Amino acid sequence: MTRVWKWNRPVTVREVLEDLQQERSIAYTTVMTVLDNLHQKGWVRREAEGRAYRYEAVSTRAAYAAALMNEAWTQSDNPAAALVAFFGMMSPEQREALRDAVRMVQGPEETLAPQNPTAENPTAENPTAEKPVAENPAVENPAAAGGETGR
After folding, report:
1. Which of 53, 71, 108, 118 is deepest in the core (most CB within 10 A)?
2. How far, in Å, CA of 131 to CA of 100, rounded?
3. Which DSSP category does 1 fall into?
């Protein structure tokens, strides 16, 4: 699939073969069998061109990756734990990409905090609600570090 996605157009067995042979020795029949298997599984469509076929990806690489992640997640007996473990494996860059993706899916109005106090967000629109205390008040309020009271 990587080679089919790389070309981003319908490709022949010969084209994929020549591309692969730049890295390793591989037989024409092996490439033909793999592309035929991908066609039978529904990952590529093919169109006859003379005596050969041209193969084209049915979905994008991103859609394929999403389908794999969804399949793995839905097969878990504890999807929440699986997600937590997955997020724990992510690099900071991957977590930022995840945040960006969530913002794109939710849209700007949904990414804002709820406006009404709830059990999940007791301080929303409720200035008297108790706020968490910082471990080190001097870090949260630099003026407190120098003994200033703000008066």
Report:
1. 53
2. 28
3. -
Q: Among 42, 59, 47, 41, which Cα is nearest to 5's?
A: 59
Q: Enter the DSSP assignment of 7.
A: H
What is the distance between the alpha carbons of residues 141 and 102, in angstroms, rounded to a whole number? Answer: 31
Output the six-digit token pair for 28: 């024409």
- pLDDT by residue (tens digit) across 4-36? 999 889 999 999 999 999 999 999 999 999 999
Q: Which residues of 107-141 are buried (b: 16+ CB within 10 A; e: fewer)?
A: eeeeeeeeeeeeeeeeeeeeeeeeeeeeeeeeeee
For residue range 90-116, list pLDDT tens digits in order.
999 999 999 998 999 987 665 555 555
